[in-house]
Amino acid sequence: MDRKLVDLHIHSTCSDGFYSPEQLVTMAVDAGLAAIALADHDNVDGIAAAQRAGAACGIDVLSGVELSTQWYEYTDMHLLGYGFDPQDPYLNRELSEFQEFRSGRNRQIIERVNERLAAEQRAPIDADAVRRLAGGTIGRPHIARALREAGYVADNDEAFNRYLVPCNVPKRYFPVDEAIALIQRSGGVAVLAHPPYITRERHKLETLVAELVGLGLDGIEAYNNGSTLEDTDWIIKLARKHNLIVTGGSDFHGDPGSGIEIGCVFHGLKIPYRCVDEINAVLQQKQK
């Protein structure tokens, strides 16, 4: 029995999480995990800090990233990268462009939210205050938190329904073939994140995975909070059919009241260390 446990999908303040990389490492140690991966959205800024903290605490920290991609009708399809070189200059140049776009997008969202608040004769939220709440890159959950703290909404759901969805600015996406190539060019493996959030129609997912395998996909995140136990078993079988590795992660952001915990997915299912072994096996094979 695999007693060592992991969580390979965690977000920090470097994207839209609520905890710093160092805090996440401490939380992972407290949860009894043997390894984690910081997989922030479209940036790798927190990896070095997380790895330093991990080395001090005796927990493995894999390099990770979550890229926002699209492929034909599938928009905002997420791709995880693991084991790449966080200092790779080409990777960092591409991600810097994304961060610049993300920063401008969030400023526009705040402006639109404030226009809506003005129409309701309410005081605007302060972009600098939102930035302080984030402690790093601003994400929509941080704007939602500012709305909660101002007393304008009761919870995140109300913040999104009343303000963030109507005031949204479209995101930018990597074409998925370019995203896979970007991860692999920097020495990593490419894994399809939380498949049930892409589609719950299994025949469509089978077709999509087959297409992505043709583009070089390395694995699927079978252990995730969108999958039931039955879904997880089915996704593992799908992965094995295509000789793909299996990974898993909670997609923990630390949102108050989300109910998501580090190291756990649906119904408290734990993520086995063999996911790390599978990643390392592919990395070693690629190096040869």
Under the CATH scheme, the architecture of the largest domain is Alpha-Beta Barrel
Average pLDDT for all residues: 93
- Specify the number of helices: 10
Rg, please? Answer: 19 Å
The proportion of strand residues reads 15-25%
- Give the uncertain stretches in residue-range form: none
Distance between the termini: 30 Å
Question: Biggest sheet: strands, sense, closure?
Answer: 8 strands, mixed
Order of helices and strands: EHEHEEHHHHEHEHEHEH
The number of E-state strands comes to 8
CATH class of the largest domain: Alpha Beta
The oligomeric status of these chains comes to single chain
Estimate the global geometry from the Cα principal axes: globular
CATH superfamily label of the largest domain: Metal-dependent hydrolases
Domain unit count: 2
CATH topology of the largest domain: TIM Barrel
Structural class: alpha/beta
Helical amount among residues, as a percent range? 40-55%
Would you kindly provide a written description of the structure presented here, covering whatever features stand out?
With 288 residues, the protein is α/β, with parallel strands linked by helices. The protein folds into two domains: 6-95 and 173-287, TIM Barrel (Alpha-Beta Barrel); 99-164. 45% of the residues lie in helices and 16% in strands. It contains ten helices and eight strands. Strands 1, 2, 3, 4, 5, 6, 7 and 8 form an eight-stranded mixed sheet that branches. Strand 7 (219-223), helix 9 (229-241) and strand 8 (245-248) form a beta-alpha-beta unit. The chain is globular and about 60 Å long. The two termini are 30 Å apart. The model has no long low-confidence stretch (mean pLDDT 93).
